[in-house]
Specification:
The protein contains 16 helices and seven strands. It is an alpha/beta fold.
Length: 407
């Protein structure tokens, strides 16, 4: 006979309610509603432009004489303004939350949203826009002083890629690698940031933060490890530091770039082509708004653009790589370029690891001036490597360890 006391349904509901982080729920609801209102305003603008175009009845490949918004009825603009005004009011509600790994799928969804339209979230002052913060492996906030607690400290900073966060670094393979490092006195931190912002903007912020942090709490040695877009961010920070005369790069001994699209990603170039086709007809041109919803960082991945000048030269309808030479790697730093491919065929074509071609990850280019090189640079190529799961691949961390401890 079962003698276990039965818990009333009401008590079970109350127990579950106590476990819910209601601050995060309210903050998330506010952020989603804010995003929905701005999205509705953008959709209204799209309809406005289509209506204004149709009223002028241009030829399919012709030109329009008056901007579509001027020919469309004024209620369109009124509705769009109402949506934006409501979003601004909602944004002022004093709700705050810090999403951590303990919030189940919230962090991956938030990171993905920032990667896809993070520059717009920032422009709209969205509660969902991530700031640049230093994190521990469990997603708790870290202060730089906790890592660089003495001038003899040796620190490694991991920088995630597009649509990711510190969460994706946490694999058994990386933990085994960290066990070796911590046994040798190293300390690790993970950077979280809005991966949809233009790469050069994040690079500038990282450079400025490192300059300030190391000035207050110096470290003996700092190593930067970036995955995918994170490697471009590191290179962008190096370049910003060079232009501004920063001294923090003097503390960098090594920098590793794991599957980083130094020469761009073909999928973004294909997306740019598809979106540019819409520009050829006045009737489809308003639909470019849908294609341009992708973030500035995604557009920078077209050719691996890491400076403000490079990004500004690449318009939404440009298909040419305007770079004349590669942004140089710091000569005093030991560099590792690691790339991979799904199979032997993918190693020889644009597929590579599923997102980044091997040649792009290894910094190769048909134009010699665009090839990445440095006095101390190692290139490693792995087969049967998938871009999305490579951080769980033991071979990646073995290659990193071999390069790290090589004398």
């Amino acid at each position: 006979m079962n003698t276990t006391p039965t818990v009333p349904a009401g008590e079970r509901v109350l127990a579950l309610a106590r476990q819910v982080d209601w601050r995060a729920v309210l903050w998330g609801t506010q952020g989603l509603a804010h995003l929905a209102l701005h999205s509705a305003a953008e959709l209204t603008d799209l309809v406005t432009e289509m209506d204004g175009t149709i009223r002028q009845a241009p030829l399919p490949l012709g030109q329009i004489d008056v901007p579509p918004r001027q020919r469309a009825p004024w209620p369109y603009r009124l509705v769009a303004q109402i949506f934006r005004s409501a979003a601004n009011v909602l944004q002022r509600l004093p709700l705050h939350a810090d999403i951590r790994q303990s919030h189940a799928m919230a962090l991956p969804v938030l990171s993905a949203a920032n990667g896809v339209l993070g520059d717009k979230l920032e422009r709209w002052d969205s509660p969902l826009a991530l700031g640049m913060t230093l994190r521990a492996g469990d997603s708790e906030l870290l202060a730089w002083s906790q890592l660089a607690d003495s001038p003899k400290a040796r620190v490694v900073l991991f920088v995630h890629g597009l649509c990711w966060s510190e969460r994706e670094w946490q694999t058994p393979a990386q933990q085994n690698f960290l066990d070796v490092l911590t046994g040798k006195g190293w300390r690790a931190g993970w950077l979280r940031y809005n991966s949809g912002r233009a790469i050069w903007r994040n690079g500038a912020d990282l450079a400025e933060w490192l300059e300030e942090a190391l000035a207050v709490h110096p470290a003996r040695e700092l190593v930067l490890v970036g995955h995918s877009q994170g490697g471009l961010l590191i290179r962008s920070a190096f370049e910003h530091a060079r232009v501004q005369g920063h001294v923090w790069p003097d503390r960098i001994s090594r920098a590793a770039y794991l599957a980083t699209p130094h020469q761009g990603a073909p999928l973004e170039r294909a997306g740019n082509w598809a979106n540019a086709i819409l520009s050829h007809s006045p009737y489809t041109r308003p639909l470019m708004r849908l294609g341009n919803i992708r973030s500035a960082a995604i557009k920078d991945l077209r050719f691996g653009l890491i400076t403000e000048a490079e990004s500004a030269a690449a318009s939404d309808t440009s298909h040419e790589d305007h770079r004349s030479e590669a942004v140089p790697l710091p000569g005093h730093v030991r560099h590792l370029l690691l790339g991979g491919s799904l199979n032997d065929d993918a190693a020889r074509n644009w597929i590579g690891d599923g997102l980044v071609p091997v040649s792009s990850a290894l910094g190769d280019h048909v134009q010699p001036a665009l090839v990445l090189d440095a006095p101390d640079l190692v290139r490693v190529e792995l087969t049967s490597l998938d871009h999305m799961t490579m951080l769980a691949d033991v071979r990646v961390w073995d290659a990193l360890a071999d390069w790290w401890f090589e004398r």
